[in-house]
């Protein structure tokens, strides 16, 4: 489905399982679904960008998966900005505010792909601002696999909120690849609202040229036997490149027997590049298994030596090691065709 400047331009909901609704909020004709949707499309703690999206979103797009429905076909949402500017001197940025709500009822399953991309390589310097919000609600035992690819123009600003509400026994898996935009920030907020809930966050950011890649995540575990894993990997490739990771996991008092892990690894290829990392694990419960770790470094010289000792020249060895660093996350994208496209993009940028 194509979403142009926040507007849904194509409708392929007929290709999905029977009973699944995909369309603008204004076209909802079910009072029951409308009531459910209205419970979640609300303001979020007064956040400026969230509120701006609430004011500017033309017509929120709703994805509703009924109870027990397993959607076999991935739902691919492609976001396009047509109002970008090519003049670097202008202080005006055209802005779009796409908003999507994915509501998966009890026992439902869906694979959602969000892809932010320009139409061609010749437009990669276009200037515009995308201010997006995606809300995902999982009922009891529901499962959502969420792939998020951000490869917009290197002259663009990209700000995105992803808010996830998980009920008992639900599974949410996020794989994010972010390599576009001059300024890119992704705010992720996940809250477990029931026991036996699983959350898995895998993210890879590549910062080249004068890019800033910024990721802020907050995961709140409120109930017993919650499980979470977070892996964040980042490459800062040039002297003016910057990256930020601020990851918070809070295990509240009722979340006994929780198993939570967080790991962030950053590859700094230029000594003047900048990486700011702030892992934060707050534990109030006492019967838990939790861990977190952070590392920032250049390539391991022993790994380079291993390649060279087997007849591989230093440049080829370095390229292979740098690419494989991010490939660990890329390979978690479920769709093979999308994985190939992303790998091709990352190789070109590196």
Automatic annotation (TrEMBL):
Every SUF system FeS cluster assembly SufBD core domain range: 95-325
GO biological process, one term: iron-sulfur cluster assembly
Pfam families per record: SUFBD_core
SUPFAM superfamilies attached to this UniProt entry: Stabilizer of iron transporter SufD
InterPro entries xrefs: Fe-S_cluster_assembly_SufBD, SUF_FeS_clus_asmbl_SufBD_core, SUF_FeS_clus_asmbl_SufBD_sf, SUF_FeS_clus_asmbl_SufD
Protein name: SUF system FeS cluster assembly SufBD core domain-containing protein
Species name: Genlisea aurea
Lineage: Eukaryota, Viridiplantae, Streptophyta, Embryophyta, Tracheophyta
């Amino acid at each position: 489905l194509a979403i142009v400047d926040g507007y849904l331009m194509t409708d392929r909901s007929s290709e999905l399982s029977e009973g699944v609704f995909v369309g603008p909020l204004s076209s909802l004709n079910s009072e029951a679904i409308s009531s459910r949707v209205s419970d979640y499309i609300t303001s979020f703690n007064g956040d400026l960008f969230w509120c701006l999206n609430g004011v500017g979103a033309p017509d929120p797009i709703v994805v509703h998966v009924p109870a027990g429905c397993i959607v076999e076909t991935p739902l691919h949402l492609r976001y396009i900005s047509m109002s970008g500017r090519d003049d670097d001197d202008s202080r005006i940025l055209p802005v779009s505010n796409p908003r999507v709500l994915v509501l998966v009822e009890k026992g439902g399953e869906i694979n959602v792909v969000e892809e932010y991309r320009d139409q061609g390589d010749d437009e990669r310097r276009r200037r515009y601002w995308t201010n997006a919000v995606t809300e995902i609600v999982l009922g009891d035992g529901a499962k959502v696999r969420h792939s998020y690819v951000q490869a917009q123009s290197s002259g663009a600003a990209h700000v995105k909120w992803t808010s996830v509400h998980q009920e008992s026994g639900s599974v949410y898996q996020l794989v994010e690849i972010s390599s576009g935009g001059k300024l890119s920030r992704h705010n992720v907020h996940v809250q477990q609202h029931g026991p036996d809930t699983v959350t898995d966050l895998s993210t890879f950011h590549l910062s080249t040229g004068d890019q800033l890649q910024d990721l802020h995540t907050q995961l709140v575990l409120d109930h017993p036997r919650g499980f979470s894993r977070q892996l964040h990997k980042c490459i800062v490739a040039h002297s003016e490149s910057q990256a930020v990771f601020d990851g918070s996991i809070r295990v509240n008092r009722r979340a006994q027997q929780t198993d939570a892990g967080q790991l962030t690894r950053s590859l700094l290829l230029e000594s003047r590049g900048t990486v700011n990392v702030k892992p934060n694990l707050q534990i109030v419960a006492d019967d838990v298994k939790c861990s977190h770790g952070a590392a920032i470094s250049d390539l391991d010289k022993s790994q380079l030596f291993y390649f060279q000792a087997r007849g591989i020249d230093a440049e080829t060895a370095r390229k292979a090691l740098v690419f494989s660093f991010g490939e660990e996350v890329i390979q978690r994208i479920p769709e093979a065709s999308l994985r190939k496209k992303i790998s091709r993009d990352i190789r070109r940028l590196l």
